Amino acid sequence: MVTYLWAFLIGGLLCALAQLVLDLTPPRFTQGHVMVLFVVLGAVAAGFGVYRPLVELAGAGATLPLPGFGFALVEGAMQGAAKGLAGILAGGLSATALGLTVAVLGGLVTALLFNPKG
User: Fold this and answer.
1) What integer pLDDT is reported at residue 53 of this predicted model?
2) In the chain, how many domains are there?
3) What is the chain written as a DSSP string?
4) 30 found inside a domain
5) What was the pLDDT predicted at 116?
6) Taking Cα atoms as reference points, which of 80, 72, 20 lies closest to residue 42?
7) Which of 102, 79, 99 is nearest to 91 (CA)?
8) Maximum Cα–Cα distance for the chain, whole Å?
9) Nearest 5 degrees, angle CA 36-CA 37-CA 42?
10) What are the pLDDT tens digits along the chain (118 aa)?
11) Containing domain of residue 10, as a range?
């Protein structure tokens, strides 16, 4: 039960922080900017070893929001580093393959089912 509470609190805090960044920055700072910022922050935090304890505490509450994607990229790249440069690139992609596949297939299904207005 406590794990669910931590996942809810940490995940909600990360999402609320992203919304605050979006609301409190100039209008030129778009949703895409916030997405890239949070992925990069997650990657940097993973590189310094700060994000791992958060993942261990909150589980999916830390791995599902955008910083979790950056964390997964870095973790995969670090695991693949033993295999050289190709391992670094392949490690990051293999660690995030499921998330990327779901995003691409979700976009495809949405494009097939709905007509954009504009």
Assistant:
1) 96
2) 1
3) -HHHHHHHHHHHHHHHHHHHHHHHS-TTS-HHHHHHHHHHHHHHHHHTT-HHHHHHHHTHHHHSSHHHHHHHHHHHHHHHGGG-HHHHHHHHHHHTHHHHHHHHHHHHHHHHH-----
4) yes
5) 76
6) 72
7) 79
8) 49
9) 100
10) 899 999 999 999 999 999 999 999 988 889 999 999 999 999 999 999 999 999 999 999 999 889 999 999 999 999 999 899 999 989 999 999 998 999 999 999 999 999 877 6
11) 2-113
Q: Token pair of 9, please?
A: 């609190």
In a domain, residue 7? The reply is yes
Residue type at 48 in one-letter notation: F
Query: What tokens does 54 get?
Result: 């958060």
Is the residue at 104 inside a domain? yes
Contacts of 116 (CB under 8 A, 6+ apart): none
Instruction: Report if residue 118 sits inside a domain.
Output: no
Q: What dihedral angle (degrees, nearest 10) is formed by the CA atoms of 41, 47, 53, 54?
A: 10
Return the pLDDT at 118.
63
Q: In this predicted structure, what is the pLDDT of residue 117? A: 77
